[in-house]
Design a protein that fits this description.
The chain is mostly helical. It has one domain: Farnesyl Diphosphate Synthase (Orthogonal Bundle), CATH 1.10.600.10. The protein has 17 helices and no strands. The radius of gyration is 19 Å and the shape is globular.
Length: 285
């Protein structure tokens, strides 16, 4: 059978995406088994599929060579095929084929996945935020969808729970931004709001040297950490509405974020991508 030009173009686009092995290089069986005992094998597999998609999108947006916006369009096209449920024209990327099974079995909506792609589009063009409110708007794209999808896997994505989850995920995202100030600055991105940088007198040198924070930057970190702590406070009310397995996961999310804040406020470094913690555990990462 002759391959048409559109088919060849699509195949080339998918081939330019990071491979499954590059995205998930350490998917260990032992941790997956432990997670399966806690969450159930089916749920662990579904969380792994969501994590694979989210990491693939982030890797494209943060690290892929070439035209990242074009590659994100490839991701969008693959996502459309996931939700088309067509046996004759399925997605081509292995991670997207795995996601298709999860979407079908859990009846997940397309919206959260689209927002994760849009967050990475924004990262290509928007590199700074004027206000904390603008940063929270970004978190609705970059972080909130993760919590909504996790709730969806557990069959618990009610409007009230999603609203609480949005706050927890925003808090976790702020924690990650506080941990990654120097790394983000090296990539040309500054997630600390301009109004707060001005308030505490933080300049480019403070951001570049965030691994050994200046007095001004330490004051800014304490200020933003208080905001993150308030957001993470929604974890308790959310957890109390959930069955045991997701309750444990949500409580762990919030507790991990709070521990990271304590380290940051104490001037200690410490890395931990708490936003993806449950998904990584499910995948044995």
């Amino acid at each position: 059978m002759t391959t048409t030009a559109p088919d060849a173009s699509r195949a080339a686009g998918v081939a330019a995406l990071p491979t499954r092995e590059q995205v998930l290089p350490q998917a260990g069986r032992e941790n997956f088994t432990v997670a399966s005992r806690i969450l159930g094998r089916g749920r662990a597999r579904h969380l792994m599929a969501i994590y694979g998609f989210a990491r693939l999108v982030d890797d494209v947006g943060d690290e892929a060579p070439g035209d990242r916006l074009a590659l994100l369009e490839v991701m969008s096209d693959e996502l459309g095929r996931v939700f088309a449920h067509s046996a004759s024209d399925p997605p081509q990327h292995p991670l997207m084929r795995e996601l298709a099974e999860t979407v079908r079995e859990c009846r997940l909506p397309i919206g959260p996945f689209e927002r994760l792609i849009e967050a990475n589009r924004m990262d290509q063009t928007v590199t700074r935020y004027a206000t904390f409110e603008q940063l929270l708007d970004y978190c609705q794209l970059s972080a909130a969808p993760v919590g909504e999808l996790v709730l969806g896997v557990f069959g618990a994505a009610t409007p009230n729970r999603v609203a609480l989850s949005d706050r927890v995920c925003a808090g976790l995202q702020v924690v990650e931004h506080l941990q990654d100030i120097a790394e983000d600055h090296a990539r040309g991105r500054v997630y600390m709001p301009r109004e707060d940088l001005d308030r505490f007198g933080c300049g480019e040198a403070d951001l570049a040297g965030a691994d050994v924070p200046s007095a001004a930057l330490r004051a800014l970190i304490v200020f933003e950490a208080a905001r993150a702590r308030a957001l993470l406070g929604s974890g308790g009310p959310l957890a109390r509405t959930l069955p045991p397995a997701p309750r444990l996961a949500v409580a762990g999310f919030a507790a991990g974020g709070l521990r990271a804040l304590e380290r940051l406020e104490g001037g200690r470094s410490g890395r931990g991508a708490f936003l993806w913690g449950l998904l990584r555990a499910a995948g044995g990462r």
